[in-house]
Amino acid sequence: MKKVIRISSLLYLLLITGTLIAQRTLLINNVNIVDGSGKPSLQGAVRIKDSIIIAVGKLSPLQTDSVINGNGLTLTPGFIDTHSHHYGDLDTHPESIATNSQGITTIVIGQDGESETMDSIRSFLKRKPVAVNIATYTGHSTLREKVLGLSNLNRPATLGEQHRMQTMLAAEMKKGSLGLSTGLEYEAAFFSSTDEVVALAKTAARYKGRYTSHIRSEDVTLDEAVNELLYIGKVTGMPIQFSHIKIGLKDKWGQSSSILKRLDSARSAGIRITADVYPYDFWSSTLKVLFPDKNYASIASAQFATEHLFDPRQSVLVRYAPEIAYVGKTLSAIAQTRSTNEASTLIELIRLANLFRADHPNFSGGVEAIAAKAMSAEDVHQFVGWDQANLCSDGRAGGHPRGYGAFTKMLRVYVRERKQLTLEQAIYKMTALGAEHAGIKKRGMIAPGYYADLVLLDPLTVADQADLANAASLSVGIQSVWINGRMTYSGTSVPLGAARPGILIHR
User: Fold this and answer.
1) What is the mean pLDDT of the chain?
2) CA 300, CA 324: separation in Å to the nearest integer?
3) How confident is the model at residue 495 (pLDDT cuts 50, 70, 90)?
4) How many structural domains comprise the chain?
5) Would 488 be classed as within a structural domain?
6) Which residue of 34, 180, 259, 350 sits 20 to 30 Å from the alpha carbon of 300, by its own alpha carbon?
7) Strand duo 454-457 + 478-483: pairing
8) How big is the CA angle at 244 (ends 464 and 217), to the nearest 5 degrees?
9) Cα–Cα–Cα angle for 216, 219, 225, nearest 5°?
């Protein structure tokens, strides 16, 4: 009988202990809470159980709480990067320090028309846990490549090919894809018809998905490309996102206000147009983007590019496999080395890159890329300030400094230096607004029931340090980062034993 009593007591003790363990909570105390809504901040604390925020406000510690003293710093929702290319770095850098170090807790991939399937991302995360959440669009170019073939992309798809792409897209939508992305300026999609894009967008719309687009031209035919984007939004009725909004033609610099008026007018007419933007006046992409007519051997086209599309004296090669020594040099400097002009150099660099691709069919990583000074800073300021523009990086680890610094630059430049935005307004553009535009639920706010993606930062010192010369320099002022309730970053490093709790987010 005594033995039975002892066993029963032990079981009871184990039950009680297990319950207590299950009920352990985390309290982040003594913080200035900027909750992501844009409303004024409040002093208080946040309580987390497992991956969920369960209480916000003036909270006293409980016996079940593990307490972290925020020392009066600012606690914000984790930043949401609605246009990211960081996925390509996660296999070798699953700790994702490029994103964590600037407070990004969720990346939205499948951009510019190129994507992985939901199943492939899910399999990757099972094999390699990572320290960032992932959501994805399904890429138009990827669908074209699968259906038309890599050597047959310089034409519109037939109706039969459209139907095959629609079937593939529908399958991805059922698995949780956010919607359809296009990169209409790039070769794989440039020759597609608007009708083709509309057909696919309507498929995404049937599943309550979204449409995001690197539009067909950001320079010479910008107006026509914006018209196409708005037309797609009108005929589908779905939310549409203007990817990394910019003006890439010197002749049109200063026209940001008129573009935003067009977008506001479209919104008044019922078109659900929004945008994302990164806080830099130079982009990074393939050299081929500099040829609007896709004639990469035309000296006239190359001259037009060097005179009207970008400044070769301030534009730097950030990747060039055929000649590593060119990386970090401006196009003008390379031209001087080769004893020729910038236009001829541009043509030759593309020719050599094409030869390299042919000779190295299994080469992993991009063969070439340039960070091109191609925008007006004032236009960028206007786009950042638009009330329907959320922040993005359009980055990855290395090359362009946006991969390590877009979000912290937002706080340094637009909050502290320019005072264009309040801290609350900037955080809103980096969190809740981005979540809304991407269709991501229960993230981007500090509120009960939301996932515990959080950033503890010092608003007086937070700043980017990455530039073209040191593109991988870590930001300062980001004290700690939690993803799904687990710490992934602290100070300037990944803490010992840090978790990799990133998940695949479904629409």
Assistant:
1) 94
2) 27
3) confident
4) 1
5) no
6) 259
7) antiparallel
8) 140
9) 35
Helix axis angle, 140-148 to 159-174, nearest 10°: 130
The Cα-based distances of 147 to 6, 35, 408 in angstroms read: 69, 45, 41
Q: Which residue has the tokens 């706010």?
A: 445
Helix, strand, or coil (residue 43): strand
Is residue 464 within 8 A of residue 456, CB to CB? The reply is no
Q: What is the mean pLDDT of residues 485-497?
A: 84
Is residue 225 included in any domain, yes or no? yes
The three-state secondary structure class of 479 is: strand
- DSSP-derived letter for residue 74 is E
Domain limits for position 372 = 79-447
Q: Give the C-alpha distances (Å, rounded to integers) separating 495 from 226, 419, 466.
A: 45, 33, 22
Q: Of 275-279, 291-295, 296-300, 399-403, which gets the smallest average pLDDT?
A: 291-295
How many angstroms separate the Cα of 329 from the Cα of each of 126, 283, 286, 317? 40, 16, 15, 6
CATH of the domain at 180: 3.20.20.140
**How far does Cα 453 stand from its chain's mean position?**
16
Query: At 449, which amino acid appears?
Result: G
**Given this model, what pLDDT does residue 21 score?**
47
pLDDT exceeds cutoff 60 at 9: no
Tokens of 404: 């390590």
Distance CA(483)–CA(292), nearest Å, equals 41
| Tokens standing for residue 380 | 């960028």
d(CA 12, CA 161): 65
Least trusted range by pLDDT, from 135-139, 186-190, 249-253, 360-364: 360-364
**What average pLDDT does range 148-162 have in this prediction?**
97
pLDDT at 461: 98
Within 8 A by CB and 6+ apart from 414, the residues are 279, 381, 384, 420, 421, 426
Domain assignment present for residue 489? The answer is no
**CB of 410 closer than 8 Å to CB of 104:** no
Closest CA to 447 of 72, 35, 1, 69: 35
pLDDT for 121: 98
DSSP 220-263: TTHHHHHHHHHHHHHHH-S-EEETT-----GGGTT-HHHHHHHH
Residue 496 falls within a domain, yes or no?
A: no
Lowest mean pLDDT: which of 114-118, 360-364, 466-470? 360-364
